Amino acid sequence: ILPDIKRLKEQFSDAFIMLYPRDIVSGDFYWFERLDDDKFVLVCADSTGHGVPGAFMSMIGSTLLQDIVSRQHITRPSQILKMLDNQIFTTLNQNLELGVSNDGMDIIVCEINPKTRHIRFASAMRPVMIVLKGETLYIKGNRSSIGGESVIEKFFDDQEYHLDEGDTIYLFSDGLPDQFGGPEGKKMKIARLKNLLGEIWSLPVKEQEERLLKFYHDWKGDLDQVDDILFMGVKI
């Protein structure tokens, strides 16, 4: 169900996607679609759970995104998140009073205009990192997940930036920063990841991917992988 990364690389200067399931299948998934000459929607999602339960949520999320974006032509990220939240609630018959299902996902939806390099994104519980003119920006998402919390009024807003040629946007699940390792067996955490991106953002994306992968394996050492890992980098 995952789209071909070649289609992503065709639209931008370059791009890479690291997807390493903890088990055979993954609760992390990516999705993207180009609607016309000036709209490209890119999604990075982390579903509840991993393995088979997480993969079922990934399939549901991909299917619903296909309907919302490709069929209904909705491209504003905040609207996509709101509709996705409502449809997951309906699809899974979620009702907290009945205790039926509390599954959902943390997700970033990014709308990119490849011609003007204008980006607009909305995020549910996941940060976004953008290297803008050599400066690494860490941008927090809204504090509500998609699905699950049916009785809570949720709010998703759009954030907008104009990028220069060569600027890079990074989207990722919590699998990499939550990985235990290092000399004391602690979590990697966002700060280490941000420092690494500050060092490697100017490299060709293939080298960035190799550096990230080496950093991950060196950090993890002999410890087990704790979660699915998804990390995406798109150079504008």
Report the strand count. 13
N-to-C span: 25 Å
- Average per-residue pLDDT, rounded, comes to 91
Q: Give the % helix.
A: 25-40%
Range of strand content: 25-35%
Q: Which residues sit in consecutive blocks of at least 5 with pLDDT less than 50? A: none
- Quickly give the structural class: alpha+beta
Annotation field: number of helices: 5
Major β-sheet annotation: 6 strands, antiparallel
How would you spell out the order of helices and strands? HEEEHHEEEEEEEEEHHE
Instruction: Please give the oligomerization state of what you see.
Output: single chain
What would the principal axes of the Cα set say about the shape?
A: globular
Task: Give an overview of the whole structure.
The protein is an alpha+beta fold and 236 residues long. The chain contains five helices and 13 strands. Strand 6 (128-132) and strand 7 (135-139) form a beta hairpin. Helix 2 (51-71) crosses helix 3.
Helix/strand layout:
Layout: H1 5-11, E1 14-20, E2 28-36, E3 39-47, H2 51-71, H3 77-91, E4 104-113, E5 118-124, E6 128-132, E7 135-139, E8 146-147, E9 159-162, E10 168-172, E11 180-181, E12 186-187, H4 189-200, H5 205-220, E13 229-235
Antiparallel strand pairs: 1-13, 2-3, 3-4, 4-5, 4-8, 5-9, 6-7, 6-10, 10-13, 11-12
Helix pairs in contact: 2-3
Could you give a short description of this structure?
By secondary structure, this protein is an alpha+beta fold. The protein has five helices and 13 strands.
Main attributes?
about 240 residues; alpha+beta; 6-stranded antiparallel beta sheet; 5 helices
